[in-house]
Amino acid sequence: MKEIVAVLGAGSWGTALSMVLDENGHEVRLWGNDPEQQKEINEKHTNHHYLPDVVLSESIIAFTDLEKALEGAGAIVFVLPTKAIRAVAKQVALLLDGKNKPHLVHASKGLEQDSHKRISVIIQEEIPAEKYDSLVVLSGPSHAEEVAKKDITTITAASENQVAAGYVQKLFMNNYFRVYRNTDIIGVELGAALKNIIAVGAGALHGLGYGDNAKAALMTRGLAEISRLGVAFGADPLTFFGLSGVGDLIVTGTSVHSRNWRAGDLIGKGHDLDEVLNNMGMVVEGVATTKAAYELAQEKGIEMPITEAIYKVLYEKADVKQVIEDLMLREGKAELSSETMEKGNKEI
Ligand SMILES: NC(=O)C1=CN([C@@H]2O[C@H](COP(=O)(O)OP(=O)(O)OC[C@H]3O[C@@H](n4cnc5c(N)ncnc54)[C@H](OP(=O)(O)O)[C@@H]3O)[C@@H](O)[C@H]2O)C=CC1
Ligand SMILES: O=C(CO)COP(=O)(O)O
């Protein structure tokens, strides 16, 4: 199968996914909003700010005109920071005529500020169902830097429509990029978004000089509270043991590639949050997601003590050592709770 694929978002992940699609023989149109970057990609075949030292195939063409990028596309892949998804989806909706119905895919990881909505929900709100074929979430442990080097990567294509998930599996899969199908969109999106909170925390522990025991504690108990929130909103608890749960938690909670981990590390070393975010030069989704998840947990009465602690450090300038002490000295509890394993039916 050879498709025309419009990749919306010419940052690290959009560029790395474009390389996979190009490798698989598809016609790739990489859309961004920066004319200088478009010129660089089309003339020098590099995207030096987002993927330094990587040479792109000449057949990956960058666009700044969204209408031209979407013309005749069989698939449209949203790979934008969460805060840009709604605005870009609105523009896409205006350009789709309902005759050529593309498959929609998104590969972003976050929750919308204020509404706390998942990305697939935002896309469905903005693009009328009659204008596209299907919607699939592509998510898993996958640093752009490693995918661009063709390092072995596994990822999940989640959709209620398994024919659509199979289409996306076929679109992306090759000998270094293995794609699994999944039916649990809620669990995959929540696992992907919420692990970024824990990655910020893991970086902060490293920056503060804590060791491996602390890291294991944070990641394990972090996974417990991610699952608790997810299950309360209808996710399958088993999803959190999969690629977009524990898999993505490992990759971001232990790696210097992770922008969330690096931001946490700098915060742990005493740097100011605004300074850290301004100097990163790339999106750090975990900071905004911490706020969204904290508000969601408060609203629904779901216990998320690690998220609450990270929220206090990021948004209330709480002393990080004091916050850790408070976490450690909470009332003693049983390790496993039944609410983590009982699937709820609330939707976000
Ligand atoms: N990097 C990774 O390894 C992975 C990232 N992800 C997820 O993918 C999403 C995107 O991340 P990533 O590519 O890393 O982010 P980057 O910060 O590397 O790049 C973001 C890109 O989005 C562009 N952008 C921002 N707002 C708009 C807009 N309104 N219209 C058009 N373009 C816009 C930026 O353009 P400009 O340069 O002009 O600001 C930039 O090209 C995130 O949700 C992230 O969590 C998922 C898996 C892996
Ligand atoms: O989600 C990612 C890898 O799976 C990338 O994480 P960061 O956004 O923290 O770099």
From TrEMBL:
Domain Glycerol-3-phosphate dehydrogenase NAD-dependent N-terminal: 5-163
InterPro entries for the chain: 6-PGluconate_DH-like_C_sf, 6PGD_dom2, G3P_DH_NAD-dep, G3P_DH_NAD-dep_C, G3P_DH_NAD-dep_N, NAD(P)-bd_dom_sf
GO CC list: cytosol
Listed Pfam families: NAD_Gly3P_dh_C (PF07479), NAD_Gly3P_dh_N (PF01210)
Chain sites annotated for binding NAD(+): G9, A10, G11, S12, W13, G14, A144, R259
This protein's pathway: Membrane lipid metabolism; glycerophospholipid metabolism
PROSITE patterns according to UniProt: NAD_G3PDH
Gene3D superfamilies listed in its UniProt record: N-(1-d-carboxylethyl)-l-norvaline Dehydrogenase, domain 2, NAD(P)-binding Rossmann-like Domain
Catalytic reactions of this protein: sn-glycerol 3-phosphate + NAD(+) = dihydroxyacetone phosphate + NADH + H(+); sn-glycerol 3-phosphate + NADP(+) = dihydroxyacetone phosphate + NADPH + H(+)
Enzyme class, broadest EC rank: oxidoreductase
Glycerol-3-phosphate dehydrogenase NAD-dependent C-terminal domain mapped to chain residues: 184-325
Alphabetic keyword roster: Cytoplasm, Lipid biosynthesis, Lipid metabolism, NAD, NADP, Nucleotide-binding, Oxidoreductase, Phospholipid biosynthesis, Phospholipid metabolism
Subcellular location per the Swiss-Prot or TrEMBL entry: Cytoplasm
Biological-process GO terms, alphabetical: carbohydrate metabolic process; glycerol-3-phosphate biosynthetic process; glycerol-3-phosphate catabolic process; glycerophospholipid metabolic process; phospholipid biosynthetic process
Residues binding NADPH, per UniProt: S12, W13, Y50, K109, A144, R259, V283, E285
Sequence positions that bind substrate: K109, R259, N260
Family that this chain belongs to: Belongs to the NAD-dependent glycerol-3-phosphate dehydrogenase family.
Alphabetized HAMAP family for the sequence: NAD_Glyc3P_dehydrog
Functional summary from the UniProt entry: Catalyzes the reduction of the glycolytic intermediate dihydroxyacetone phosphate (DHAP) to sn-glycerol 3-phosphate (G3P), the key precursor for phospholipid synthesis.
PANTHER family in alphabetical order: GLYCEROL-3-PHOSPHATE DEHYDROGENASE, GLYCEROL-3-PHOSPHATE DEHYDROGENASE [NAD(+)] 2, CHLOROPLASTIC
Name by which UniProt lists this protein: Glycerol-3-phosphate dehydrogenase [NAD(P)+]
Name of the coding gene: gpsA
